[in-house]
Amino acid sequence: MRLRSARGSRTRSMAHSRPPAETEEPLPIVEIVLGDVDTSDWVTETLGSLGASFRLLACRPTDRGRHRLLRLFELRTGPDGLGPVVRRLRSRLASRDLTVSSLGPDRALLRVSVPMPATCAAAFDLGDFCITCPYSANEVATKGGAWKVLVPQIVDARRLLSASARSTGPRPQLVRAGAYRRAWGLTGRQERALREAFQIGYFDYPRRASLATLASRLGVTRSTALELLRKGTTKLAAQRFFEEPSLEQLP
To answer: Has domain 188-249 been given CATH number 1.10.10?
Structure first.
């Protein structure tokens, strides 16, 4: 009896030591939009002044102290080509801070290391993710100093506001907070329509499938199938040429 009691007490003790089951819903990631963000950036201003269009592909800090930021751009040059862009950037950057790789007659990959802006340092320190970049002037979503960021919780919005505040001038303001909005991405129906059209040969020349066939596969009318294709291809073309489609073309 004594042995059985000891065994039972050990069983009860182990049961009490187990962590409780997760019953609460996980907190969603929050998208915030900050306004009045300082967007002064000589690199993108230089590119724009020389008639170049560009897209920021990636960025990351290059040191533990968050003193320098490494940025990777896909660049489409103006009518004068790549030469003026490289010469202007090299006038202010050391050779180790600038690398350019040609992708064709008017395209290049640009790798540039610059001093870290306070806003970027704050986002990296807090583990946030930028949806738009306030230092990429080609993005329509960032006009007016707006900055879209994904933060783990809404409380992190206040932390980011405080950490990215400038020493002079107005402080950044919280414009919106809520669920993540993927405004320029393909919808599920658009992606399916494009994939189906590609697979059955609708885009081939000559075409191997008609619009009626595609509509039948999708279970929609011909006009709806055409609308899905046009809106989907508009978004893909906008991503390719660094220009977001107008609002009347969405979603």
So the answer is: yes
